[in-house]
UniProtKB/TrEMBL annotation, chain A:
The keyword Transmembrane helix applies. This is ABC transporter permease. The chain crosses the membrane at residues 12-40, 108-131, 137-159, 171-197, 227-248. It comes from the Bacteria. Keywords: Membrane, Transmembrane, Transmembrane helix.
TrEMBL record, chain B:
It comes from Planotetraspora kaengkrachanensis. It holds the Pfam family ABC_tran. One of its GO terms (cellular component) is plasma membrane. Residues 2-238 form the ABC transporter domain. The lineage of its organism: Bacteria, Bacillati, Actinomycetota, Actinomycetes, Streptosporangiales. The keyword Transport applies. Keywords: Antibiotic resistance, ATP-binding, Nucleotide-binding, Transport. This is ABC transporter domain-containing protein.
Length: 257, 266
């Protein structure tokens, strides 16, 4: 818990970066909103969304970019593995994974305030967005949001840890960013994808980061099913991360000195 | 306190097996102050990483405070303090005292014990002036003292330091040395340090070990080290002699005289 607080404060140091991020997320939100409005005016009711749902989806997902770190990164780990500083993290009497998770939750909490609220407010003022049906939906959304951050962490931790084997993480990060932006639903809502592609996209872990919390917010999905889906992927990715951490301990060449 | 028996660690680098440490045996008793020398790439840091449980050995037996480091990492963490001169455990963006508080939480140190210990370390290492400064704004000498304090907050009986004086100016170096000497003498902390600074060895260590090509090339007193070369040799001459002779000797290194790959350099 305390570590979450420190993660929050660490990232709060960089308020200018967060402000710039919030501004960018908002501007792109407006651009995306127009694209989605055009799409839904041409095909009303597409994927079960109306125009106002699509606009809400747009600003919600813009709001996720910071906390869910949709474009990847957010962890110090690849850098620490590359320079060898991770050696010291491995000396501590704590699980590397849980340690990183706590810090990441702090980061997400800060970015929620700094980078999620502004685009959502601007979207509400400019276009008008749907609000959750009631307190129960709000609560379900918050749980779903936190689970989304945990799934996002689970995935980013695996990508980060892969640095142990590939020497440099940049190629993997780019691949991860492409996978995440597309399959999370950030690029286009996953609900509009037809056939097997849609089914596949909606069952992969990335959907748990953006599409599922948005659907919970919009009330387009069964809350229990959505939370179960997210919990499953959170557990699966954290489990894989724990195994990978153990493997890394055995195999890894800690670089430099 | 430390028992090392026929310890070995190999790395696979692009298909070839590299022996970073081979057949290394030594023991360190409680209260000793041991310096560890060796050329770059000799296997010093790899040895330190095995002693601290970061790396698992590929062969041999290892006990630190009676524990097998790589298997009992969590228990071992409470028994040892670790300082890597070229790395930092401190949180870059936060004030120094926040890093200490995190260490306290991590090692579950009782608040009162922690306060007393921190006060003691602050006065010995003169940390008071920059406790509230974010770590990224500290000078190297200040940061190093901060790192040493962080490694000792849980009061470990063993302290392992990898190049603790690297890059420090004369005054900072003297400060660190003075502190380590007192810690060993007054507190009885067992200290093992690696260094390239022969001043560290001469001023601090009663015992010197020289590791080369992953093996023990010398183990004895500083006087014994000087006596390796005939006449009134300085410690520099003795160490140079040992480094060069092992490089020439085909017996100790049958494959190729090139140093270890960059991934395992000391």
């Amino acid at each position: 818990m305390r570590l979450i607080g420190y993660g929050f404060r660490r990232h709060a140091t960089y308020w200018a970066a967060a402000a710039a991020g919030a501004f960018t997320n908002t501007v792109f939100g407006v651009l995306r909103a127009y694209v989605l409005i055009a799409l839904w005016q041409a095909r009303p009711g597409l994927g079960g969304y109306e125009v106002v749902d699509a606009v809400t989806f747009c600003f919600l997902t813009q709001a996720y970019i910071g906390p869910m770190q949709v474009f990847g990164g957010g962890l110090d780990l690849p850098q620490r593995i590359r320079t060898g500083d991770v050696a010291l993290d491995l000396v501590r009497p704590a699980s590397l994974q849980l340690w990183c998770l706590s810090e990441d939750l702090g980061r997400a909490a800060y970015l929620f305030v700094a980078r999620s609220v502004p685009p959502a407010l601007v979207g509400a003022l400019l276009f008008g967005i749907v609000l959750p049906a009631g307190p129960a939906t709000w609560a379900a959304f918050m749980v779903s949001f936190v689970l989304g951050v945990v799934v996002s962490f689970g995935w980013r931790y695996l990508v980060a840890l892969a640095t142990c084997w590939v020497i440099d993480d940049r190629g993997l990060s780019v691949l991860s960013t492409i996978l995440t932006t597309f399959f999370s639903g950030l690029m286009l809502p996953l609900v509009i994808f037809p056939g097997w592609l849609g089914t596949l996209a909606r069952s992969l872990p990335w959907a748990a980061m953006v599409q599922v919390p948005a659907d919970v917010y919009l009330g387009k999905t069964s809350v229990a099913g959505a939370l179960a889906f997210q919990t499953f992927w959170a557990a699966a990715l954290l489990g894989a991360g724990a195994l990978a951490t153990a493997a890394a301990r055995r195999k890894v060449v800690i670089q430099g000195g | 306190m430390i028992e090392v028996d026929r310890l070995g660690r190999t790395f696979k680098v692009r298909g070839t097996v590299v022996h970073a440490v081979r057949d290394l045996s030594f023991a360190v008793e409680a209260g000793e102050f041991v310096g560890c020398l060796g050329p770059n790439g000799a296997g010093k840091s790899t040895t330190i990483k095995m002693l601290t449980g970061i790396l698992a050995p590929t062969s041999g037996r290892l006990r630190v405070a009676g524990l097998d480091p790589s298997r009992r990492r969590m228990a071992l963490a409470r028994m040892i303090g670790v300082v890597f001169g070229q790395r930092t455990t401190l949180w870059w963006d936060l004030p120094l005292k926040d890093s200490f508080e995190l260490v306290r939480l991590l090692y579950k140190v009782d608040r009162r014990v922690f306060r007393r210990r921190l006060d003691e370390l602050c006065s010995l290492l003169e940390l008071g002036d920059f406790l509230a400064t974010p770590v990224r704004q500290l000078s190297l000498g200040q940061r190093m003292r901060g790192d040493i304090a962080a490694a000792l907050l849980h009061d470990p009986p063993i302290l392992v330091l990898d190049e603790p004086t690297i890059g420090l100016d004369v005054v900072s170096k003297a400060g660190v040395r003075d502190f380590l000497r007192r810690l060993n003498a007054e507190h009885g902390t067992t200290i093992l340090l690696t260094t390239h600074d022969l001043g560290d060895i001469e001023q601090l260590c009663r015992r010197v070990m020289l590791i080369d090509h992953g093996r023990l090339a010398f183990d004895g007193t500083v006087a014994g080290l000087r006596a390796v070369v005939p006449g009134e040799a300085s410690i520099e001459e003795a160490v140079t002699h040992l480094y060069l002779s092992s490089r020439r000797s085909p017996r100790t290194h049958p494959h190729r005289p090139a140093p270890d790959p960059p991934s395992v350099t000391a």
